[in-house]
Amino acid sequence: MSSTLDEVQIAEIREIFTLLDKNSDGLVSTTQLGLILRGLRYHPSDAEIFELQKKIDPNNTTSFDQNSLISLVAKLELQNNTIDELVASLNSLNPDENSSIPFKTLVSMMSKYGETMSEGEIIEVVRDLGYDPEHDVIDDEAGFCTMLLNKCTNG
Prior knowledge:
CATH topology of the largest domain: Recoverin, domain 1
Low-confidence stretches: none
Number of domains: 2
Radius of gyration: 19 Å
Largest sheet: 2 strands, antiparallel
Number of strands: 4
Mean pLDDT: 80
Number of helices: 7
Distance between the termini: 25 Å
Subcellular location: Cytoplasm, Cytoskeleton
Protein name: Calmodulin
Function: Plays a fundamental role in microtubule organizing center structure and function. Component of the infraciliary lattice (ICL) and the ciliary basal bodies.
Structural class: mainly alpha
Domain EF-hand: 8-43
CATH superfamily of the largest domain: EF-hand
GO cellular component, one term: myosin II complex
């Protein structure tokens, strides 16, 4: 069901879900999603909770089941792991941790390594994120990686 969650994490999700399933019908109100995620040590903003509510309840039934919650949390866990990996990769471009990473360096590295993209494609993504690849620098690696991952997964 969820390769990124271990048995303990799934048990914790099930326990919190059961506590909030007041009438034991196997459903919890989407308004409880933020409370559940905070109880699981995630810290989404109100805007992120709103987007997650749409994902967990795409038909707008105002409720969700336990399996939907487990799937959602597994995706969040995978996203968190991916962000950590992206930040580590960016930090490897910046041996002097007290300085920023020029986007020119990022564009150059991304066009040469891994699943290569053309410089034009990379520049387009960077601009879509609101940066000027010629003049801006990355000074918040985690923030940039979160925006990049959200852009890639949400279109």
